[in-house]
Design brief:
about 400 residues; alpha+beta; two-stranded antiparallel ribbon; about 10% strand; globular
């Protein structure tokens, strides 16, 4: 606690003892409970940022024990996040074993799994375990699986629903693709940038997720609600396909032009910038980028690629400045990649990390092509602040 605040609670032992007498065990953080009680006792408001738990010695932190379904201790430590990562696979396996039921199925081509509850609760070893069912994409079919996290279940469920809707609407999707007047040209422009099969697969998933699974949509949990949703929005499939047609065409037209500029003899002083641009283009066009971005972000892709064009135009006159920006952006991207890899491995969903990714993209625009504008205010300070929230997970 900062000294200007701490001085209001002298002598410290008296305030601590007085506060502890009024506290009882609960699920709220100790700092929240203690802060409110100290405020009642002194009238001094205690803010969340006044608590600096990172500076505490290790022996002052809570020792956490991990027990199995038989109550045996299988691990312990004082870093909760580290323990979560260490035992994430074990927890997932335990949930699957304990919650094994008729609900888990594979090879589904239609909604034949009955009603999906929001959560399943089971008791084991004196503990209450919750698991969350979701439809899971298996390429040619879907499965029903259980997850320890409601957030992860929601992510997988959206992918599974997209696949199931694609299976049921294959004829309508084929017709919608035929109505995309620029799609043939887009396929040609995507040559050497993206596999043709992956491109069409992503377009179909984008159409389905865009029409049926917007963020504010209530997802179906039963066959009745699934069939109602399917029929209700069939008429929106072709208009949505026609809407994304010019956007995709513009993306690949600009990207193809950038790709051509990256070929040929490269001078040593521009090598770092051109290598970064090549990696950036590959990252923007990675498999599944359309569905992953959704219309919320895909609509900004032309601006991102135009910013790369501006960067290439300005590069001869600002090689040193470009190098400095490249080094800064590389450090940010590496932090994101490392954290994303850890989250994927341990099945963690963090909206702040995804926002950090898009903030990097906007930051690139602000550095290399400020005249194009950004979607929201962005700076290195804002990036640092958001990263602090990412690290808190």
């Amino acid at each position: 606690m900062p000294k200007p605040v701490r001085k209001n609670f002298v002598p410290v032992p008296d305030f601590v003892n007085g506060a502890l007498e009024s506290l009882s065990a609960c699920d709220e953080p100790l700092t929240d409970m203690l802060g409110r009680q100290l405020t009642r006792m002194s009238g001094v408001r205690i803010l969340e940022e006044h608590w600096n738990t990172d500076s505490l010695d290790g022996h002052l932190l809570m020792n956490i024990r991990v027990v199995n379904e038989d109550g045996d201790v299988i691990g312990q430590g004082r870093d909760l996040n580290q323990l979560r990562q260490q035992f994430s696979d074990h927890v997932q396996d335990t949930i699957r074993k304990l919650a094994k039921s008729h609900l888990e199925q594979e090879g589904l081509l239609d909604w034949t799994c009955g009603e999906l509850p929001h959560e399943i609760t089971r008791k084991a070893g004196g503990l209450v375990l919750k698991s969350y069912p979701a439809l899971v994409d298996q390429r040619d079919s879907v499965a029903v699986q259980l997850f320890e996290s409601a957030a992860m279940a929601d992510v997988e469920n959206r992918k599974g629903l997209t696949r199931l809707l694609r299976i049921r609407l294959s004829t309508q999707l084929k017709f919608a693709l035929s109505k995309m007047a620029r799609l043939k040209e887009t396929r040609l422009l995507a040559t050497n940038l993206m596999n043709q099969n992956l491109l069409e697969d992503d377009v179909q998933s984008l159409i389905i997720s865009g029409v049926y699974l917007s963020k504010d949509s209530e997802l179906p949990k039963s066959r009745e609600s699934f069939m109602a949703l399917l029929e209700q929005r069939k008429g929106d499939i072709v208009p949505f396909a026609e809407k994304i047609d010019p956007i995709l065409n513009e993306i690949f037209r600009i990207a193809q032009g950038i790709s051509r500029q990256l070929k040929g003899k490269i001078s040593f002083d521009r090598a770092l910038a051109l290598a970064d641009i090549k990696q950036h283009v590959q990252r923007l066009l990675q498999p599944g980028f359309m569905t992953s971005a959704g219309m919320e972000w895909l609509s900004h892709y032309p601006r991102y690629f135009k910013a790369i064009e501006v960067r290439l135009e300005k590069l001869p006159a600002q090689v040193n400045r470009d190098r400095a920006w490249t080094e800064e952006l590389t450090a940010l991207q590496q932090k994101y990649d490392k954290r994303r890899e850890a989250h994927d491995q341990h099945k963690v969903v963090d909206p702040n990390l995804q926002q950090f990714y898009w903030m990097i993209e906007e930051y690139r625009v602000s550095l290399f092509a400020q005249q194009l504008g950004t979607r929201f205010p962005v700076s290195d300070k804002r990036l640092r602040k958001l990263w602090e929230e990412v690290e808190a997970i």
